[in-house]
Amino acid sequence: MKICIDCDDAAVTLKKVIYEHLKSKGIDITDLNYSEGKENALYPEIGFNLAKEVAAGKYDRGISICGTGLGMAMIANKVEGVFAGTCHDVFSAERLRKSNDAQIITMGERVIGPELAKKIIDAWLGSEFEGGGSAPKVAQMRNLERGSFHPEL
Asked: Is pLDDT of 42 > 80?
């Protein structure tokens, strides 16, 4: 599994913690570091870039971090084919994958500490879409998304 990670200026410390945590576990993770060399890169362009990389199939999953995680989730969900959600607890992180098939998790450095963040990421990466009763709901979300991006269809 190939993972990418990125953050805005409000989450540099947490990004580093998660990156090092996953590297130490032997996980293939890339820090996109979108803002390097760019003056005043804001979270919308950082999160949008990460979501485009995931949507293009360059990465299986992405981790996007800002102050709260909320803005990163909002912008990631503007990329067709991407499902993203903010998680600050383990149960939600599991459900984000198991029930919603989301490829991107977002979180906020101002909301959770580093040890909890590691547990959340581990739970999310250890979960897979279960289908079952959630499959028709995810299919409906995909169909509604298609209609939103391509109203002519």
From this structure: yes
DSSP-assigned letters across all residues of 55-100: HTTS-SEEEEEESSSHHHHHHHTTSTT--EEE-SSHHHHHHHHHTT
Cα–Cα distance for residue pair 24/152, rounded to 1 Å: 47
- For the cut 80, the answer to whether the pLDDT of residue 68 exceeds it is yes
Structural domain count, the chain: 1
**Residue 103 backbone phi and psi in degrees, to 5:** -90, -15
Residue 91's domain spans which residues?
2-149
* Confidence (pTM): 0.94
Cα within 13 Å of Cα(132), Cβ side: 8
pLDDT surpasses 80 at 51: yes
For residue 102, give the CATH number of its domain. Answer: 3.40.1400.10
According to DSSP, the residues that pair with 55 across neighbouring strands are none
Rounded Cα gap, residues 94 and 33, in angstroms? 26
Q: What is the pLDDT of residues 81-121, one digit of tens each?
A: 999 999 999 999 999 999 999 999 999 999 999 999 999 99
Active site residue 66: yes
Catalytically annotated residue among 4, 7, 66, 87 = 66
